[in-house]
Amino acid sequence: MLYLHSKSTQKLGKIKSIVMNNKWSFHILVAFLLIASACKSEVKTNAPATDDTVVNEQITDAVSQDDASQEVTEVAISTSAKNGKEEKPTREVKEVKKPKQKTEVKKPKAQVDKGIQIEMGMEDTDGEAAVQEENENDSTSEPTVKEPENEKNEEEEVENSKPSKPAKVDKILGFPKHTSFAKLLKTHVSPSGVVNYAALKGDEAQLDSYLKLLEGMPPATTWSSEQELAYWINAYNAYTLKLILDNYPVKSITDLHGGKPWDVKWINIDGKSLSLNNIENDIIRPKFNEPRIHFAVNCAAKSCPPLLNDAYVDSKLNAQLESQTKKFINNASFNTLSKNEIEVSKIFEWYKVDFGDIASFVLRYANTTVKPGAVVKFKEYDWALNGK
Fold this sequence. Notes:
The chain is mainly α.
């Protein structure tokens, strides 16, 4: 009996070893229990009680260990079934357990694709960096995935190009507001048009800056007719002031350049060299066909229509031209009006083609009644400087 008990104990040890190492432990366990039961029945009457207790403890340990082994085996079988092969479960489980990948992979498709790659041996050996890149590509497979990066690049390109383009944009789309010139005129020109050249000389740098503005911002096709006309009137007046300041003190503008200062080409605008006569007779008159400009441009002479102590601007250009024309025609220092006869400035004689019938034109603005057929005479022109 002792022999049988010893033999049973040896069998139990062998079965225990098989159970611990064999993945089909469940079936082996059943066989083990059957054998143990048979052995127990044979030695029940003769075996010591303590030996039966030992067998039960060994069986209990075997069952516990077998349960743990069964759980591991079931995980392996489940993983292998998902991937199609038994030899890859540990790798797959390792990849799934990475918390970083769980947060990055937002779509189930990314995990499936990755599993396929692992099974086919296509996974990048660089590790996490490659897996992360693959997941990003798979999880954002829609055509718009790169739009944020493209938008950022476009914004950076726009930002980088901004500093090099303002001058070009201003030249095409912008136009000078003439505010700096208006400030100079209000400061140094009286309401009656008398210019304080001595004081203006102290602010010549501001005038130079305005002229630079005009030179760098010539009229563009996008400008309105009012914007362009205001530009050229201001340019004519500003360059005339500059001509006087460059030669100040001077008694008359006719003392400069042999009595023909209007023919000298010294003005640079839009890459062209211009004279005062070019501005008035080659640009303003033929392009705008506006007779009232003769009361806006100023030739720095006393008999010339007074210089407006403000800059001409597009928003009120018509009102400014209308006001200057009316003031000049009704100013007795420049014109003498009566019903049957008018004695007017030589400007009407020099530019008769622009005014048409002189008496009719004067009648439109005169405060005194003038017959359309009134006799027209012309006053002498005083070329003395229009200021001090």
